[in-house]
Design brief:
The protein has about 190 residues and is of the alpha+beta class. It has 5 helices and 9 strands; from the N terminus they run ββαββαβββαββαα. It is globular and about 45 Å long. The N and C termini lie far apart (about 40 Å).
Length: about 190
């Protein structure tokens, strides 16, 4: 009934403080993150959870998928290409360190990221490539602190950031093995380095 979206937003909550509040994804990266469906279970939102726990749920809803997740990714890729749709990953998790060290992303930061996506302001930003995940990260975005936008800058202990980033990248790679094989489109090249 309505038109097709200009932008698609994947929402995650990174309890490790590694992912930026917003990232621009290439079509291949969009499929990788769609299939990964990464977020964290956090206390207060999940029964029995006292410490954040990484979780991967294909297509951000694996329990509800009647066919293999790669089929949904192929369909999404086709729609994104047909309609020239942009894809962004928005993180509402932690910044400056993981849970217990860093701070939870503020609502103002999340709103600023979403608003910039929807009003097109993000397209005026300068971007850098994230060294661990390969996606594009804005270095400026309205009133959002540049140190929050590029997560490593927000950590006082850069070695701890590097270790957390490597750990999270490893979790992504380990999870993604199930989406590779001879009968599926292989998006693994669009994941962490």
């Amino acid at each position: 009934m309505a038109g097709h979206p200009e932008n698609v937003i994947f929402l995650t909550c990174d309890a490790y403080g590694v992912l930026p509040p917003v990232s621009r994804l290439s079509p291949g990266q969009a499929m990788y993150h769609f299939l990964s469906g990464y977020t964290a279970k956090v206390a207060g939102t999940e029964r029995g959870i006292t410490e954040p726990e990484a979780t991967f749920s294909a297509c951000f809803g694996a329990a509800f998928l009647p066919i293999h997740p790669t089929r949904y990714a192929d369909l999404l890729q086709e729609k994104l290409a047909t309609h020239n749709t942009n894809v962004f990953l928005v993180n509402t998790g932690w910044s400056g360190g993981g849970n217990g060290v860093g701070d939870r992303m503020s609502l103002a930061t999340t709103r600023a990221c979403i608003d910039a996506i929807l009003d097109g302001g993000i397209s005026k930003s300068d971007f850098v490539m994230d060294e661990n995940f390969g996606f594009d990260v804005p270095t400026t975005l309205g009133d959002v602190s540049p140190d929050v936008l590029v997560p490593r800058r927000a950590w006082s202990d850069k070695d701890a950031y590097d270790a957390s980033a490597a750990k999270l990248a490893g979790m992504f790679k380990e999870n993604f093995v199930k989406f590779t094989g001879p009968d599926v489109t292989d998006y693994s090249a669009f994941g962490p380095k």
